[in-house]
Amino acid sequence: MTIDIEKSSGRVTSSVDETTVKNLSSEDEKVSKIHSRKRKKKRIRKSAGKLDVSVKSKSSFDALKEVKVSQKALFKRTADYSKNPEILDLCNFIEKSPTAWHAVANMKKEYIEAGFKELVLTEIEWNVDFGGKYFVTQNGSTFLAFVLPTEKPKSFSVIGAHTDSPALRTKPSPEKTSSGVNLLCPEYYGGPILPTWFDRDLGLAGRVKYIDNDGKSKCYIYNSERAVAFLSTAPIHMKREQLTKLEINEQKNLPVITTLTGTHDRPFIEVLLSEKIDFKKIIGTELFLYPVQEPRIINGQFLSSWRLDNLLGTHAGYRGLLLNAEPEENRAKIFISWDNEEVGSNTAQGAASMLLEEVMSRVCLQLKMSYSELSAAKNSSGLISVDSSHAEHPNYKELYEPDNTAYMGDGPVIKVNAQQHYATDAISQGWIHEVALKKGIPVKEFCARTDGRCGSTIGSIVASKLGIRGVDIGVAQLAMHSSREHFALVDHLSMMVLLRGLYSHPFDVEYD
Ligand SMILES: [Zn+2]
Q1: Measured in angstroms, how far is the CA atom of residue 54 from the centroid of ligand 1?
Q2: Ligand 1 centroid vs 308 CA: distance in angstroms?
Q3: Percent share of the chain, pLDDT over 70
Q4: Residue 391 DSSP one-character state
Q5: Structure pTM?
Q6: Contacts of 468 (CB under 8 A, 6+ apart)
Q7: Closest CA to 134 of 159, 153, 116
Q8: How many Å lie between the centroid of ligand 1 and the Cα of residue 155?
Q9: Helix-helix angle 426-439:489-504, to 10 degrees
Q10: Is there a contact between 345 and 458 (Cβ–Cβ < 8 Å)?
Q11: Which residues are bridge partners to 162 per DSSP?
């Protein structure tokens, strides 16, 4: 297997790297070994006269338990993954993607390198063809890519994630001075764990609209690429309770410190931007503060980083489609990562927008499909919403539903909620189990305590909007929405194999 190494980053490009290839390609080997072992066991049972019904009739749970018991997992739970190229690629992607705009720009670059053609939403003509691979972006912060089948699509396999994360965002007029220092005043975006933003080195990144020196109005995706601010806790001797409790007034206590007063004679943000662009006037800003500490692998087993929710799902999904870019016969494969999930998805580029449906309709129109053909295809489709899940925390076990909890390192999690905060139902849950079984990947159900609450994600929003069946899965992590989150590396590799499997195993919509 040839391996393409990108000189600049030294990272593996579109083809899969040696170890993962070894892993992934030995996957089938292992699975066939499993099946031969099963066949042998059946023969033994048969010969022992205790005829057992075929595996098919066993529920997928029993079969999965059997797999768990009898089969060595595809990835060794306790192995050292610090040199695994997909993990190093994930770290690189997170570090280079402080905002949704940066994440989309990075995916765009990779998809163009992999031969995907860009389609522009504002253009009337879209030249798409059977077997072709394309992508569109919206607002520069939502990314959608798809591979068309060689015949009219009879169904769509959709993997969905989101590009945004909770953070601090500067106010329209953020600059003020106090106590001898210059400050930037933020609001918070989504639900960040605010205490974790204190005493961290913070960078600034986002989008600005400006007038250049020729009077032209332009847009720029900015990244300070270094720490430019910090937020300090109050003095412990004057606030003893801080030993265990950090009380925060969001209006008063969140302004971050940048420079000493008198350092510059123009707004600090203008000083920063002038390092990157020439401008006459800044006329619009969406700037996020972000922790500059790079992702760190701990003991070869865990990753500590910001933005695991949900660059983990985005990375597994976009790599999943890149590694599965061969056209199917009559099933279209779609990967989409929406912006604004953390603030409810109700934006033009959010999961509650028309984007996915619009692209499906425009493509089917181009392929001369009738409305009924599109409708039938949609109703035969499956949506896999990939977003982080909560791993059981050893120091807070009482917060979890004891019988429906997931540990780090135990494989992808199927998220279930009776209130439909998750899109998972028995059919889609079964689908995950069946593909996991085939791929030799352990999976586990999670639901919240009945007296507790669970989060929500794009699954139910998109499933209801398009009328396609969905399932919510994710990697079990700790410290979700903190400026430093944690998860077990092996689960990301398992998720990547599972998503590849889901792209190659169509959704069985039969209800009975
Ligand atoms: Zn999320």
Answers
A1: 40
A2: 8
A3: 85
A4: P
A5: 0.86
A6: 156, 158, 378, 379, 381, 382, 383, 462
A7: 116
A8: 26
A9: 110
A10: yes
A11: 338
Cβ atoms within 10 Å of 6's Cβ, excluding its own = 12
- Give the pairing type, strands 296-298 and 256-260: unpaired
CA 195-198-199 angle, 5° bins: 145
Ligand 1 centroid to 52 CA: how many Å? 44
What torsion do the CA atoms of 419, 422, 424, 429 make, to the nearest 10 degrees?
-110
User: How far is the centre of ligand 1, averaged over its atoms, from the C-alpha of 404 (Å)?
Assistant: 20
Can you tell me the distance from the alpha carbon of 190 to that of 133, in angstroms, rounded to the nearest whole number?
33
What's the burial of 97, exposed, middle or buried (CB within 10 Å: 0-12/13-18/19+)? buried
Q: What is the pLDDT of residues 464-497, one digit of tens each?
A: 999 999 999 999 999 999 999 999 999 999 999 9
Distance of CA 434 to the CA centre of its chain: 23
Q: What is the DSSP letter of 410?
A: S
Cα of 498 from ligand 1 centre, angstroms: 19
User: Could you tell me the distance, in angstroms and rounded to a whole number, from the CA of residue 457 to the centre of ligand 1?
Assistant: 6
Distance 418 CA to ligand 1 centre (A): 19
For Cα atoms 164, 456, 250, give the angle at the middle one, nearest 5 degrees.
60
Rounded distance from Cα 461 to ligand 1 centre (Å): 13
Those residues whose C-beta lies under 8 Å from the C-beta of residue 44, and which sit 6 or more positions away, are none
pLDDT at residue 32, as a whole number:
57
The DSSP secondary-structure symbol of 299 reads T
C-alpha of residue 37 to centroid of ligand 1, in Å: 39
Distance 34 CA to ligand 1 centre (A): 35
Expressed in angstroms and rounded, the spacing between residue 44 Cα and the centre of ligand 1 is 47
Yes or no: say if 229 and 289 are a contact pair by the CB < 8 Å rule.
yes
Per-residue pLDDT at 126 exceeds 60: yes
Distance 456 CA to ligand 1 centre (A): 8
Ligand 1 centroid to residue 231 C-alpha, Å: 25
As a whole number of angstroms, the distance between CA 166 and CA 149 comes to 37
Mention every residue, 6+ apart, whose C-beta is less than 8 A from residue 451: none
Distance CA 140, CA 423 (A): 27
Residue 151 near residue 130 (C-beta atoms within 8 A) = yes
CA of residue 480 to ligand 1 center, whole Å: 8
How many Å apart are CA 442 and CA 74, to the nearest integer? 9
| pLDDT at 511 (0 to 100) | 52
CA of 409 to the centre of ligand 1 (A): 19
